[in-house]
Amino acid sequence: MSDWDTVTVLKKRAPKASAMKSEQAINAARRQGLAVETQQKWGAGSNKQHVATKNTAKLDRETEELRHEKISLDVGKLIQQGRQAKNLSQKDLATKINEKPQVITDYEAGRGIPNNVIIGKIERVIGLKLRGKDVGKPMAALPPASKK
Predict the structure, then answer these.
(1) pLDDT for 53-97, tens place per residue?
(2) 3-class SS at 4?
(3) What is the DSSP letter of 131?
(4) pTM above the 0.90 mark?
(5) How far apart are CA 122 and CA 124, in angstroms?
(6) DSSP H/E element including 40
(7) What distances in angstroms separate CA 96 from CA 48, 93, 121, one per listed residue?
(8) Dmax over Cα atoms in the chain, in whole Å?
């Protein structure tokens, strides 16, 4: 049992992932002729929270301006005429429909974003149709909607 010339290797451990990533390990693999693939991670190791994304240039080239649809000036004028016909101030109309006076101001000036709920309330108070094909006609002249 005393054979000094024989060497027994029980287990050879595979190199750790961190050791395989080292410059020394990469150079050794290249010398042996093995295929080596290296990738550099984008933005790795940095704690940048406000980094310009890759699509910034694409967004800069975008010319379309995204805006909310505004209510037409014609509808704004109808609201104003209907309100004045009922002798209501903007504040009175706003109170009757449970909205802020600024909403009425914006709608009359054509700056308001159309909201069918608000427009419906205004229609009922001033008695004029503000939507659909009968815009500007009195609400009483329209046939009542049939309920199903």
Answers:
(1) 666 666 666 666 767 788 888 889 999 999 999 999 999 999 999
(2) coil
(3) S
(4) no
(5) 5
(6) none
(7) 52, 5, 9
(8) 119
